[in-house]
Structures are given as C-alpha cells and as structure tokens.
Specification:
Layout: H1 2-22, E1 42-43, E2 49-50, H2 60-74, H3 76-90, H4 124-137, H5 144-159, H6 180-186, H7 194-202, H8 208-215, E3 222-224, H9 243-252, E4 264-266, H10 278-284, H11 291-294, H12 300-311, H13 315-327
Antiparallel strand pairs: 1-2, 3-4
Length: 348
C-alpha cells in the first residue's frame, strides 16, 4: 500500500507539471464543445459518419436525446443500463442491435436471455420509445443499432452533466442473428483477470487503454450480488477488497445468491448516479466490486492509467468519449449487410 500511495503521488505530480500538457489534456470542460466533430456528415473509420441522418431525418438525434433525457432524469439507473446496453450489443455480433431481439419459435435463446444479460440488462423500453418516435417522424430510416449508440452517448451526457458529451457516427444497419451462446463467448465476465480482460478486448479491436477507460462506466449503476459473491470478493482472508466495503456488502448480499434471492448493490457508493472519475479513486482505495475492477492495479501500465484518470480533472471524460466512439464501431454492418428494423425486437 505504501508503494501504491507513492506511485499515486508521483504520477499526480508529474502529470500536473508535464504529461497532461504534452498529451493535450487540458483542464477545461470536454463537454458539448469539447473539440469533438460538429454534427455534419463526417466520415468515420468504420464506414460510418457523424450527422448521417442530417438529410434523411434531420431531428433523429434530437428525438433520441429527448427520450433518453426524460428516462434518465426519472431513473438514473436506466442511464447506466443504456451505456451497458451499447457495450453488450457491440461485443456480440458487432454493434447491430442483436441484443434487442426477443425470443421467437425459430430462436428461443437470443442474446438478451443469456446469463450475462438476463435479468440484469435494462433500457429496452427506452430504445422502444425512441424507435416509435422515430418511426412516426421518419419511417424506415433510423436503424435500431444507431438508436442504441445514440442512447449510450446521450445517457453518458446526462449522467456526466455534459462533461462526457460527444459526436457519435451513425450509419449502422441492424443484424438478423442473435445467439445466447455468443453472448457467453464474447462478453467478459466480472471474474476475469487482467490477461483475460486484455485478450477479450483485443479480440474486438480494443487495446488496454480502452479497457481501462471503458471500465470507468462502473462508476454508475448497480450490480447483482451474484456477480461478485461467488468469486470470493467478500472473503476476509483472501480478498483485497477494502474490509469496510466487504463488511457492508456481506450485510446486503446473501452468502449464496439464487435467482430468487439476488439483491443489487451500488457499484460506486460515493457518487452512484454520476458518470465521473470517482471509479478510479475507488479502484485505488480497493472499494470496487469485481475481480475485473481490482485487476486494473495488476500491471504498471494499467495502474498508472488508473492514477491519471483519478486525479487529472477532465482527462477521463475525454478518453471515455473517444473510447465509446471506438467501441461503437466494432464490426458494424452497413449498406446491404443488414436491415433497418421496423420493430427493434424482431427482424423484418
């Protein structure tokens, strides 16, 4: 702990003098101005474009944002769910809204019923509401995959008070394949160690920096006790979790969670409804739920990134915006490779 404290102090001091300026990470607000592209049709690396619907459905992004803002203001937990929904969609079959498909006679086990998604994944009703509004305004124009991407961006903006607001390229098409087994194969569980996490992200074209930055989304939302109790995180003799947090969690979680008895707990007890860099301070203080969270201190590279994100104002929000756009470009379907669903829950 003494060595970690020294590392924290040293890196914070170094960054305040040199590296933040050298990397162009100022202390200003990276919000809606923020240096990100203006909403005009600007190509992105995945064949997508910022402002994709400017001509075909000029109010598309405003419609989605209005629905998301209303939902998140009523229940901040839905915002956390929408951010997670984008991650869980993109890591399976790419960012193609495959996670939204309901079970059918032909496909009884789609992604949304896979253990990593059911019953914890949420926000589906917000996507439905946005799709209904868009179909009324611009029938058959805006894909469900783009709605998921816009909703993840807009939830980030609301929960961060505008500090993580950014342009989101669009032009995705919706996929027709959804498999529960694929979700199990590609979604990294909270029990993963650092090498497993790194490999999982690399398989989707994301690097270690993306891993550290996107893990920061655990600063909002709740988790089922079953996501960490079985990994020994509450074992006082073996876990590196802060004993005070572990004791609190033991009072909230059953020793052996079941489907009928699996409460949820806050992922960040300090600022639970705010998308901010508090997560990284929690990691340093060992006030995190998952093995995958604690794993960020297991290498010098990731530990240094945790320290910088924790102590440099505005740095994480800028990184998060870029990482979200990168993640939302995973294996996208464009043109004839997909469709634009009329109903996000079923293929056309």
């Amino acid at each position: 702990m003494a060595r970690l404290a020294a590392l924290t102090t040293l890196l914070a001091l170094l960054c305040s003098v040199t590296c933040c300026q050298a990397e162009g990470y100022g202390y200003g607000d990276p919000g809606s101005g923020g240096g990100y592209p203006s909403p005009s049709p600007t190509p992105s690396g995945a064949g997508l474009a910022v402002g994709f619907y400017r001509d075909a459905c000029p109010n598309a992004e405003a419609i989605v944002r209005g629905v998301v803002e209303k939902a998140v203001e009523q229940n901040p937990g839905v915002g956390a769910g929408l951010i997670r929904l984008l991650f869980h969609d993109c890591f399976v079959q790419g960012c193609d809204a495959s996670v939204l498909l309901d079970p059918t006679a032909a496909n009884a086990q789609p992604e949304k019923l896979s253990p990593p998604n059911f019953p914890s994944l949420r926000g589906f009703e917000v996507i439905d509401a946005a799709k209904a509004a868009l179909e009324a305004a611009c029938p058959g124009t805006v894909s469900c995959a783009d709605i998921v991407a816009f909703a993840g961006r807009d939830a980030s903006a609301v929960l961060s008070d505008g500090r993580a607001d950014f342009a989101m390229p669009a032009g995705r098409r919706d996929g027709r394949v959804s498999s529960a087994s694929d979700a199990l194969q590609f979604l990294p569980p909270p029990s993963f160690n650092l090498s497993e996490l790194t490999a999982s992200f690399a398989a989707k074209g994301l690097d270690t920096n993306d891993l550290v930055v996107l893990s920061g989304a655990h600063t909002v939302g709740r988790s089922h006790c079953s996501s960490f109790v079985g990994d020994g995180r509450l074992n006082a003799s073996t876990s590196d979790m802060n004993p005070a947090l572990a004791a609190s969690l033991r009072g909230q979680c059953p020793a052996n969670p079941t489907a009928a008895n699996d409460p949820t707990v806050l992922q960040d007890v300090v600022t639970p409804n705010k998308l901010d860099s508090q997560y990284y301070k929690n990691v340093l203080n060992r006030n995190v739920l998952f093995t995958s969270d604690a794993a960020l201190l297991k290498s010098g590279q990731t530990a240094a990134a945790v320290v910088l994100n924790a102590f440099v104002p505005g740095l994480w929000e800028q990184k998060f915006a870029k990482a979200m756009v990168k993640m939302a470009s995973i294996e996208v379907k464009t043109g004839a490779n997909g469709e634009i669903r009329r109903n996000c829950r079923v293929v056309n």
